[in-house]
């Protein structure tokens, strides 16, 4: 085995947030239990946001409290502002993913403020977090914006210049919000970012599969030394504030990719496939991915993912 990767399951947040019919809290918890049982350890269980803007996320505090029943689980929550970050910390969240967009248009459409204002809020939030809080910084639209098109490297690097020194040990995640990035762009941006802010310790990648390049982009990021990858079981997802963007790369597809490459993920694909199959059947969801269907007709083939 070569160096292992960490897959961060974002289905319970990114995968669920755009689904119209409210998913009962107990159903969400059942999916969480099964995902943990499949070997996933860091799961983005929801977001602290306006209930009127994203009603599907209104039970995140309740779900966060229930996560104590799974000792191996690191429940991560997404926060888009200083206020929501403080609310999450007060509710007991110790893994926070703060999100802001590189593009002005997307950030204003998402949180009604400029990226510069969001950067100021990030600084203030950091000052008041409880000791030991793990912080991830998500840079949405790092590659492409639904309103402005392709984002230039200089724009991303300028934002990193400002943000990384605030907390050099934060995990930095570059996000392909629209799914329009390509492997060459992904590799080039990670190379430029790593050279620009070498003090950043951990890099992550958040891919969408809108145009079928999700796994290729994951591989391109891996080739640049990235070892943390977001994925959503059943390929559920799509940003409500990015018109046309469909789901994230499917967790089962990412596991299959890395296990075939001889890269350990710690995830039991045979346990994950049934969860993904049930996730694809959630009313109102928009599933994606390929491995789920391929292995559903031949469960014994799960063992073929691991070559060594």
Write the layout of secondary structure elements.
Elements: E1 6-9, H1 11-15, H2 25-37, E2 42-47, H3 60-66, E3 74-79, H4 82-90, E4 95-101, H5 104-111, H6 115-127, E5 134-140, E6 144-145, E7 149-150, H7 153-163, E8 171-175, H8 183-196, E9 202-206, H9 214-223, E10 228-231, H10 251-260, H11 269-280, H12 291-296
Parallel strand pairs: 1-10, 2-3, 3-4, 4-5, 5-8, 8-9, 9-10
Antiparallel strand pairs: 6-7
Helix pairs in contact: 2-11, 4-6, 7-8, 8-9, 10-11
Q: End-to-end distance, in Å?
A: 7 Å
Strand segment count: 10
CATH superfamily: Aldolase class I
Q: Enumerate the spans where pLDDT stays under 50 for 5 or more consecutive residues.
A: none
Helix content: 25-40%
Strand order of the largest sheet: 1-10-9-8-5-4-3-2
Biggest β-sheet, characterized?
A: 8 strands, parallel
CATH T-level fold name: TIM Barrel
Protein name: (R)-citramalyl-CoA lyase
InterPro entries: Aldolase_TIM (IPR013785), HMGL (IPR043594), PYR_CT (IPR000891)
Keywords: Lyase, Metal-binding
Family: Belongs to the HMG-CoA lyase family.
């Amino acid at each position: 085995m070569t160096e292992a990767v960490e897959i961060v399951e974002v289905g319970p947040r990114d995968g669920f947030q755009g689904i119209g019919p409210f998913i009962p809290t107990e159903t969400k918890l059942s999916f969480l239990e099964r995902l943990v049982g499949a070997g996933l350890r860091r799961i983005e269980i929801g977001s602290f946001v306006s209930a009127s803007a994203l009603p599907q996320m209104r039970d995140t505090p309740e779900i966060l409290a229930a996560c104590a029943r799974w000792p191996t689980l690191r429940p991560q929550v997404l926060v888009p502002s200083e206020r929501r970050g403080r609310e999450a910390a007060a509710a007991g969240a110790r893994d926070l993913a703060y999100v802001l967009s590189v593009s002005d248009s997307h950030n204003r459409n998402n949180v009604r403020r400029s990226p510069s204002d969001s950067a100021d809020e990030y600084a203030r939030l950091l000052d008041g977090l409880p000791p030991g809080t793990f912080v991830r910084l998500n840079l949405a639209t790092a590659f492409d914006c639904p309103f402005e098109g392709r984002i230039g490297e200089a724009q991303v690097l300028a934002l990193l210049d400002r943000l990384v020194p605030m907390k050099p040990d934060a995990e930095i995640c570059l996000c392909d919000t629209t799914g329009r990035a390509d492997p060459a762009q992904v590799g080039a941006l990670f190379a430029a970012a790593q050279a620009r802010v070498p003090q950043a310790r951990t890099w992550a990648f958040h891919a969408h599969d809108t145009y079928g390049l999700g796994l290729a982009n994951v591989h391109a990021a891996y080739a640049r030394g990235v070892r943390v990858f977001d994925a959503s079981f059943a390929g559920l997802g799509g940003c409500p504030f990015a018109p046309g963007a469909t789901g994230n790369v499917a967790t089962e597809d990412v596991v299959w990719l890395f296990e075939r490459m001889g890269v350990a993920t710690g995830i039991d694909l045979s346990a994950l496939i049934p969860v993904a199959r049930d996730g694809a059947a959630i009313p109102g969801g928009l599933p994606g991915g390929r491995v789920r269907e391929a292995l559903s007709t031949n469960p014994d083939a799960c063992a073929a993912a691991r070559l060594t």
